[in-house]
Structure formats: C-alpha cells, structure tokens
C-alpha cells in the first residue's frame, strides 16, 4: 500500500499523492513527468543441483552446560542448533521447550519429529522411547525483531529451559553442544556441496547457476520451497515462507550480470522441487499451507451462559487507543472479550491490539499470552487471526470471517495469560484505516482462574 513498490514501480496511491501535491504548486509550475519503470526480465525454470545438508555441514560447536539464548553466543540473526544426548527410556516422555523464539524443529537421531511455532504458543513434544545416547537436536530460527516499544527485549533461540517430563517427574536437560548459523553469504557459500536431489525433511543449502544474455529486475518464484533465505551473486535478497501471502523475492537487476549467475537457497524444511524461475511480476497475495493458525476446532463452541459477567461497557466510536478501568481488581488467568454489536451495523468484529492493565494501572506483560478460542477469523482473504491482538503491531488485527461464512454477533476471543495476574482494566485499539467495518460498540468481559468451558 505504498506509493512506490519495492521494485520502484508507482502504485495507485502514488497518483493520489501526486494529485494532492498538485494543489500546492506555485502558480505556473507543474509536476515533472513520471520516469519509465525499470525494465523486468523473465528467467526460464532452472534446477539447483548441488546440496549441502545442514547436519553434514555443522560449524564448530560451543559447549554450554545450560541452555542459553542466541545473544549469549554473540549471534543476533539466523538459526541456532542445540544438541544433547538422552538417557534410555522404555516409555514415551514429554519434551517441554520453554520460550523458543521463534520457529523450532525437533529431531531425534537426525529425523524430524515435530515443528513448534511461537505464533501458536507451542512448546511440548511427545518423544518416543529412546535408547541410551540418542541424539536430540533442537533447531531454532529467529524470524525477526522489533526496534521499538516493549517488544524490543526479545531474546532469540531458547531463552529459558528444556525439560523432559514423565508423570510427576521432571528433568532439566543440560550439557549442550551449540551450533550457530548466521545469515551472511560467506557462511552459506563455505559448505561441502555435492550433486544431489532434494533431501527430504532435512534443512539444507541448495546451490545452482543460471545464465543471462541481458539483465533486468526479476522476481524469483519460491512456491516450490518451504521456508528459508536466498542469496544471489553474494547478495542476500530476502527470506521466504510458503504460507504467504508473498511467494516471490525481488531481485534488483543491478545485482545480476550477463553470463553465469549463482544462487544459494537455505531451505529449513525441504522443497517439493529444487527449482525456481524468474517472473516479471511479483506474487504477493497467495496464502497456502498452514499459515493461518485458527483458534477454534471443528464443532467447538464457547459456553458463557453459566458464567458471571465481570464487566460491561461500550467503546467510543472512532480510532485510537481506548483505556477502560474496571473500577475494581481481580486475579485472573483467563480473559474473554465478547463483542455484541458494531457501530456500522455490520456483523464483523475487529481488534488491532488488546492490553490488560495491572494493579498499578499499567499494561501487564503479554509475553506468555495465548489465544485459546476465537469464534471466527478471516484466513482466506487475509491473515486476520486472533493472535494479532497482542503481536505488538498496530497495523495487523483480528477480524472475523468476511469472505465465507460471515457469522453474526456475538463474537468472542479468549486469552490464556499463561500466568496469574491481578488486573484493573484493559486497553483496546480498533483497526486502523478509513471506512473500516467491525468497529465494536457494546461488549462484555468475562474473567476466570479456570479455563472457560468449550
């Protein structure tokens, strides 16, 4: 939605800005002509034939008795691998990874058994029976950082601990070998590449070449790939994730050259095919895979009829933060906001951000929050899932379904705070933008120490 997109082309918003500026030009002056767009090229489909599996190309290990964050090892970006060995067990155990930031894969003797997403609040894996000396690998990718607000203190890697639980017994795992995987090109290039097909289920670096008789901007199609990062001719051009909606990576033509060009792709899971192509237009609106993590199981309903209403109120019409004191305090673990109607008379509800206020009237930490129920979420036309209400991004929001079922009011969102908190009020930010639907009017608040019945 910018006036100029990433490849330098003007958008409809550019012309609107231009019309606005024309109104303030000195008499007799006109705006200059719009320069021609940078030319684009297509690149025929080609294969990346050389592969360097990540586990076969580990850097030097660092020893650590306890789990430490990525920053402890002087790493700020990329991925980090934690490795230890397990004692024999003839029965399944629960592996509990506390605060892994942000996207985690768990391997037993090199075979992946689980993927954990911070977005979904996942942290537990059931391990099969294991033999003495079984190798446990936990690979964690840092997916981004904020540089403002409360979210600025966001350590990466595993930030607390890893435990094995069996019944009432719990053991904190220690004695780790730690491997750091930075994002610089020299690290990606310095691998033992061999001619190979796709390595299924294993992170790996893939390398290939393509030949050009002329250069120009292009967009690499990543739809065959799962999740990772791309370097072309030594330049990091970006990260990709199959969930979308962006399925291409912009390649400036000034970084390409006539003749042979090199491309390296680190894929964290494995591609369906180790091929790509250069397109003349980007793909920015295709969601697929399991990207939209809805927070309501099939046939699941929230039962509030037997619950006591803690607070009722009405939001003000308009934009901007609204701060609502309850006039009382309550110790809670589970928080439910039920919206009853909207200012526009439509059936939608939308919230950009929610905060709970503590005993001192200031926002409590949202670090351990998890959405456990949302009656409706828009996941077809956009990724308007309920967890957006505490993602520290005012531009993202929860929005009930508007493309398929379009359910009527009331709408509910239930949050497990992850810890007991005394609250005295809450703050609400409606979605930004003009003429937006889903502006909630009347609402009810329910709070409990125990989970709500579903």
UniProtKB/TrEMBL annotation:
Pfam family, one: BetaGal_gal-bd
Any GO BP: carbohydrate metabolic process
A single MF term (Gene Ontology): beta-galactosidase activity
Keywords: Glycosidase, Hydrolase
Listed EC numbers: 3.2.1.23
Signal sequence range: none
Domain F5/8 type C positions: 352-454
Enzyme class: hydrolase
Transmembrane segments: none
Entry keyword Kinase: no
Name of the protein this chain belongs to: Beta-galactosidase
